[in-house]
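## retry 2 of 3
previous attempt timed out at serialization; input unchanged, resubmitting
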Amino acid sequence: MLHIGLTEGDPGAKKCISGVGRWPIFYLCDLLCAVRCRELVLSNSIALVSDLIRPTVTALGLELWGVEHVVQGRFSVLRVYIDKGDDGVTIDDCEKVSRQISGIFDVEDPIAGEYTLEVSSPGMDRPLFELGQFERYVGSVVTVRLRSPLEGRRKFKGVIQKVEVDAVRLLVDDKEYVLPASAIDKANLVF
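## retry succeeded, writing output
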């Protein structure tokens, strides 16, 4: 007998197939469900980390540009990007922020398991995390990767035309695309 069961919470994240018979009971979570679970956990950890460290970064006279949490097996890297406007970020700025964040993480412990903390400036090909950041760079060339295809493609490289309440208008090869903010997986300026 084979059946598909759903449990409470996000149905996409909890859908499992189970089988009962002569062989032991088994559960096979499909790949899509595993990816959704991982994205949910990562987005929650990023939001938690951002909320924890933003006041500290601001108190040091810097802007929290964004946070990335990259998981590779049992290990992960937590990247914190800071910005300082026209003055630019110095290594001393990164060191101060790293020390302060480490102290907060020692108390709050927002990331499960082992991880490496990296603090840096966003650089010239800076990642864009929020719509307000896209707004700052209207007229600039960006690369965007979507979580799922739009009109048959996931990767776009074009000029930011306009930023709307929940979308970015991108001109790619004389065609304008409206990319929903919720569908954007990763975006970077092209230098």
